[in-house]
Amino acid sequence: MRAAACLLLLVLVAAGAGVARAADEPIVAWATMEDARAALLAAGLPEPADNTADPRFPGLRSDAGDKAGIQITLMACGSDERCLGAQLIATIPATEQRYADIIVGSIEHSVAGFDAVAIAFADAQGDMAHAVQIKGYLMFDYGVSPTLLPDMTAYLRGIVEQTKDFMLQDDPAHADLWRTD
Question: Strands, E, within 21-169: which ranges?
Fold first, then answer.
């Protein structure tokens, strides 16, 4: 019993030391469009374009040149353009619904912090198209490290690249689908 109490005390002391270190980090309570732009660029993506559909939810999107894109939509924005939340979304076209479903199952079982869904929609020519959409939401709340948005954006970029590799293994025709001639 005494050994368990000592172990618990050691764990609490170690946890307290971690909190003290975290308190030394700069603190942010919001994100701006400039933060979103910087996060996309830091993840190695090309210059993002405005993707705002509703001014209450400003957004940016950056395409990796292969029809797979990552967008950041800011939410809970104040009049000073500071936003308390950010939704990160990646969309990767799929050749068939079944390949999108396989990827969704894999992401749901092996990726932390992001959810995935297979979507079907009519493309510009009116044909049925399929894609995998990977989503995550960040809430900034007095204590979030300023590296969270860029780190999560880079993490999502890594998920997209690995997912594309798996999709090419399942169906090499994805390369033709993603070609942007």
Answer: 49-50, 59-63, 69-77, 83-94, 115-122, 128-139
Report the CATH number at residue 93: 3.30.1460.10
CA distance 172 to 165: 10
- The tokens describing 95, both together, are 């050749």
Residue 121 belongs to domain spanning: 27-178
pLDDT tens column, 65-123: 678 889 999 998 888 888 989 999 999 999 999 999 999 999 999 998 899 999 999 88
Is the full-model pTM beyond 0.70?
yes
* Domain tally, the chain: 1
How many other C-beta atoms can be found within 10 angstroms of the C-beta atom of residue 156? 23
End-to-end, the C-alpha distance of the chain in Å comes to 69
Q: Which residues contact 2 (CB under 8 A, 6 or more apart)?
A: none
